[in-house]
Amino acid sequence: MKKFITRLFICSALVGSFASCSNFFDTEYNEGVDVDNGLTSVDNIKYALNGTYYQLFTSYFAGNYVLTIGDMASDIAYLNGSASHWITINHYNVTPDDTYLSSIWEYGYKIIDNASRIIKAGKELEATVTDTDKAALKQYMAEAYGLRGYAMLYMTNIFGKQIKVNGTTDNSDAIGVVIVDEPVKAFEDVSRSTVGQCYKAILDDFSNALNCYKESKTEGRGTNQYLSVAAIEGLLARTYLYQEDFSNAEKYASNALLHSGKKVEAYTVDEYKELYTGGDSNSESIFRLAIDVNNSWSANSCGNVWTTYGGLPSQRMRNLIADTDCRGSLYLPTVKKGSYTQLQYGGKFWYGGGNTAYATNYIVNAPEMELIIAESKLRAAQPDLNGAKEALLTVAKRNSQITSTDDLGNTKEEVFAFLKDERARELFQEGFRFYDLRRWGEKADVYANVEDQVSYKYTNFDIAQFCFPIPNAEINAGFGITQTPDWNKYLPQ
Questions:
Q1: pLDDT digit string, tens, across residues 139-187
Q2: Has residue 24 got a pLDDT over 60?
Q3: In sequence order, what are the residues at sequence separation of 6 or more whose Cβ sits closer than 8 angstroms to the Cβ of residue 340?
Q4: At 138, is the secondary structure helix, strand, or coil?
Q5: 3-state class (DSSP) for residue 11
Q6: What gap in Å lies between CA 177 and CA 98, rounded to an integer?
Q7: Which pLDDT band, with edges at 50, 70 and 90, does 338 fall under?
Q8: What is the pLDDT of residue 35?
Q9: How far apart are the first and last CA of the chain?
Q10: Residues of the chain with pLDDT > 90: what percent?
Q11: What distance in Å separates the CA atoms of residue 95 and residue 472, rounded to the nearest whole number?
């Protein structure tokens, strides 16, 4: 993808030694596998796949930017002014030269193109390997399909409109991003597909991932640092929720919980804080990144965003968390530091009170699956109000004052309002709020600009109309990609 392509290679570093990877688009060979000519064995496929996980893991994609943008562009994040990071996004001072957007685009397509090359090579190898090697090959292909689908889902949602809005708007025909079914050749012209076509490609990738897993007769590598069957099912549930296909969203969320064996289980302050002490501490997580004390992004970590760089829950977000809610133990109270009124200890990047740069990102988690089940039951053609409330209660009772479904509302409208707030409470710092506001058709307030009160510079923002611009570096490369028409027309005023 894009102007950087001359000769591609993928880092051979394993997940446990990500830091040794060299620049992905380097034209020199350096501990790498030439993906045009070198993917001729199952071992090389594995090395290439682990290199692709590195691109996912990087701070420019899921290691920071892709998750952070989902909250920073919403009403639940506030920047205290102690640093310049994320101001362009949080303040909606967005241009096509924005470095966050450029990095997301570049690294998203590194993942997508690499995964496409692995899938193509895997198909060519199938007929030539032993049955034992074929099982491993199918497992690696499953992960490659999953990685490509994950990257495409975020690229589509960031650079295109939300596919469905509150049962009233279908943006399937709106312009999306570039679909890469086959590896892109150097200097080859490409074009953007529609949002609907992108979502079909995403669903196809996740479905192919499950089919490959079925053929491999495995459900994953046995550690949640890699995409497993349950993780793919969780991503399918998320994708179907965005499409307002509530039947499939509920089905795959339920499957993800069943096959992972994960459940929501932290209901006290001590239990909840234990989830975020680092590494594999989150017993509710189905898929996470391999960030730890040996492999972290230091100043570019999410932990730094939500501490040193002044990232905070907005006052509106803090108002959503009751004193009796164990989740407040990570966010409240905030503390004073110098002239800046507020600083928090990292929230979900708390890392047991240690260096927040070493905290990992939990990507697919059991609470999200319960919330998907609740919303799907509630918004189905034939709503199941009681079923929705039961699933919702599983998460909501992190607030010790919520003890029964009677506390969640009596009507569909009341329960839906509670669920919207509950998603904010539960999923803060996981990067969902921007997409939630758009798909619900909320008139949003953004750019929280006054401390200690609910005050926003922009109010009543029709956020469902907005999508981020394609980076100028891509447009100016001259390989066929055009800018989203009138993207800046929908910036908040």
A1: 999 999 999 999 999 999 999 999 999 999 999 999 999 999 988 887 8
A2: no
A3: 80, 81, 82, 310
A4: helix
A5: strand
A6: 18
A7: low
A8: 58
A9: 34
A10: 82
A11: 9
Question: How far is 109 from 106, CA to CA, in rounded Å?
Answer: 5
**Closest among 370, 228, 229, 359 to 281, alpha carbons compared:** 359
Neighbour tally for 440: CB within 10 Å: 18
8 A C-beta contact, residue 281 and residue 292: no
Would you call 168 exposed, middle or buried from its count of C-beta atoms within 10 A (0-12, 13-18, 19+)?
Answer: exposed
* Residue type at 156 in one-letter notation: T
Q: What is the DSSP string of 315-344?
A: HHHHHTS-TTBTTHHHHSS-EEETTEEEE-
Question: How do strand 77-79 and strand 311-313 relate by DSSP bridges?
Answer: antiparallel
CA angle 287, 259, 418 (to 5 degrees): 70
**Whole-Å CA distances, 188 to 1, 335, 388, 441:** 8, 53, 49, 38
Q: How far apart are CA 461 and CA 186, in angstroms?
A: 41
Tokens 């990992």 belong to: 360
Residues 44-64, mean pLDDT to the nearest whole number: 96
| CA atoms of 340 and 444, how far apart (whole Å) | 26
pLDDT greater than 80 at residue 272? yes
Looking at per-residue pLDDT, the higher value among 342 and 283 belongs to 283
Query: In this model, does residue 468 exceed pLDDT 60?
Result: yes
Amino acid at 487: W
Name the residue type at position 402: I
pLDDT recorded at residue 397: 98
Angle at 139 between CA 133 and CA 143, to 5 degrees: 140
Q: Tokens in use for 308? A: 């040193």
Pairing assessment for the beta strands 456-462 and 443-448 based on DSSP bridges: antiparallel
Report how far apart, in Å, the C-alpha atoms of 8 and of each of 2, 62, 118, 357, 385 are.
Answer: 12, 21, 12, 30, 52
Q: Strand runs (DSSP E) across 37-153, as ranges? A: 77-79
Average pLDDT over residues 412-427: 98
pLDDT attached to residue 341 = 56
Coil/strand/helix, residue 245: coil
Which three-class secondary structure string do you get for 192-254? Answer: CCEHHHHHHHHHHHHHHHHHHHHHHCCCCCCCCCCCCHHHHHHHHHHHHHHCCCHHHHHHHHH
The predicted model gives 337-360 an average pLDDT of 82
372 touches 238 (CB < 8 A) = yes
